Amino acid sequence: MYLHEKIETLPRKELEALQLERFNKAVTAASQTPYYNKLFAENKIDISKIKTLDHIKDLPFTTKNDLRLSYPDGMVAVSKSDIVRLHASSGTTGKSTVIFHTQNDINKWADQVARALYSAGVRREDVFQNMMGYGLFTGGLGLHYGAERLGCMVIPSSTGNSLRQIQLLQDFNSTVIHITPSYALHLVEIIKEHGINPHDLSIKKAFFGAEPYSEATKEKLENLWGLDAYNMYGLSEMNGPGVAADCIYKGGMHIAEDYYIAEIIDPETCEQLPDGEEGELVLTHINRDAMPIIRYRTRDRTRIIPEQCKCGKTHRRIERIKGRTDDLLIVGGVNVFPSQIESVLMNVPEVGNNYVIVLDRVDGLDKMNIQVELYSKLFKGDLNALKKLNKEIVEKLRALIVINPKIEFMEPGSLPPSEGKAKRVIDKRII
Amino acid sequence: MPHQVSVFAENKPGKISRVTEVLSRNNINIRAITISDSGDYGIIKLLLDKPAEGNECLKNEGITSTLKDIVAIIIDDSPGGLHKAASLLSNSNINVEDAYGFTIREKNQAVFVFQVEDVPLTEKLLKEAGFTIISDKELYYL
């Protein structure tokens, strides 16, 4: 049931004592980084006064924008030679948010993911096919290291090349898969097209990642593939996957509370909310040497489930993420804010004032269609010029947000005007 | 030089009827119409008896429209007539962005319209080769 029994079942009092000890260490380390040093000074924070976990309320929040402001290494708490890896979040404006790790951090992260996998019933005998992108993104390498740490045989098949994926699934009898839900929907169709019954494969469990998905989609995928899917939560700022994960009872995701202090706040007032109430999840990383992050606003909406889980773990659970407190879009695993798209469009003189982003899913792949109004005064009546303009906008957007959108030109005045709360995003994806 | 009215057309039903409705209401006659299409959007090209006025009327109705310089020539309505002009432009390295034509049955002649980047140069070359370049007025009152 437990990979690290002692820590996973530590009585709450002892767990909180451990959290306080690590919290103090993390805040001390943070206070020596250029970013937090300045921030604490500006807010007149005396870290020596932190005596209880409740004192976390006195500390300022850290946002994604703060991470950008401290780019590249304003939050690094160790010497550069101790850093062994960096990860960066996808599709961000200008400077991306970069997270650094020491060897010890990588080891701890692997332990954390291994523990989460174990709680979901994965064992060292399992064959783990990791159909997730490797690279700057944390999902691929995070699960890779975790499954390897657990002792599974990992197949780092990464994304795409469906026929090879199917061959690997068959030839090596993969029992656990890590895959995006959209690719899982696509791949299962290809498997069937090749006359294979997905239920005849050896797969028992799946972890779906990188994209939000509904419970209905999860159930649909479970039925199509004939497997059991487990939710896992993570974000690169907090390492990546493994921050919280389902145990075999699937009654909410256990937060790795020896790694994080979790709070739920009201996103408007920024006040802490009691356990059980829904709000924005705020996480403090208390178990990473290279880069402690204090009170990070995840923008993810959930609630803490205070009741003890049947599995016996003392680490509290969060409900599956219910949405965002901002307007972030996740398209093909890439994070995109509509404001990023808007800033590109509004810098093109031939483009009018209004636009609509339409998201759809075709053959399991996310498609972004952007309808933009033309600015009639700059209309030259030339189809080639329009084609050139179209290409230029696509190139600019692709350079900024990584994904390849399709641009549809519209007659001025045909889209909802920009005043008020115009609906700028239409999400037709079923997931 | 003559002008064509170019109208932006998004991929939606009813665009042509909206344009023709505005023109008919303002008593403007359409001499020729053609559509260039890129799949998702296109451009409706119109030869009107009153191009400047037609353009203004369309704009006033919120339609994205503009006047565009074109080259129009008269050719014999017989085999090889167009080829002579086309090969001349090709030999002179002039890129034809778009072209369309129509015949005038009574006169056994055809009018051909070229959309090119350098209108004066194209007119000059065609004139030197003996083609009859037609002016704004001639084009609309053929």
Question: What would you note in describing this structure?
Answer:
The complex is a heterodimer of chains A (431) and B (142). Chain A is α/β, with parallel strands linked by helices. Chain A contains 11 helices and 21 strands. Chain A has helices spanning 5-8, 12-31, 34-42, 64-69, 103-119, 138-150, 162-171, 181-193, 215-225, 338-345, 383-401, and strands at residues 83-88, 98-102, 127-130, 153-155, 176-179, 205-208, 228-230, 232-234, 241-246, 253-255, 260-265, 278-285, 296-305, 317-318, 323-324, 329-331, 334-336, 351-362, 365-374, 406-410, 425-427. In chain A, the strands form 5 sheets. In chain A, strands 8, 9, 10, 11, 12, 13, 14 and 15 form an 8-stranded antiparallel β-sheet that branches. Chain A has a 5-stranded parallel β-sheet with strand order 4-3-5-6-7, sandwiched between helices. Chain A has a 4-stranded mixed β-sheet with strand order 20-19-18-21. In chain A, a hairpin with a 2-residue loop joins strand 18 and strand 19 (365-374). The longest helix of chain A has 20 residues, at 12-31. The mean pLDDT of chain A is 91. Chain B is of the alpha+beta class. Chain B folds into 2 domains: 3-69, VC0802-like, CATH 3.30.2130.10; 71-140, Alpha-Beta Plaits, CATH 3.30.70.260. In chain B, 33% of the residues lie in helices and 38% in strands. Chain B has helices at 15-25, 51-60, 81-91, 119-128, 136-140; strands spanning 3-10, 30-37, 41-48, 65-69, 71-76, 96-104, 109-116, 132-133. In chain B, the strands form 2 sheets. Chain B has a 4-stranded antiparallel β-sheet with strand order 2-3-1-4. A 4-stranded antiparallel β-sheet of chain B has the order 6-7-5-8. Chain B is globular. The model of chain B has no long low-confidence stretch (mean pLDDT 87). Chains A and B meet through helix 11 and strand 20 of A and strand 1, strand 3 and strand 4 of B.
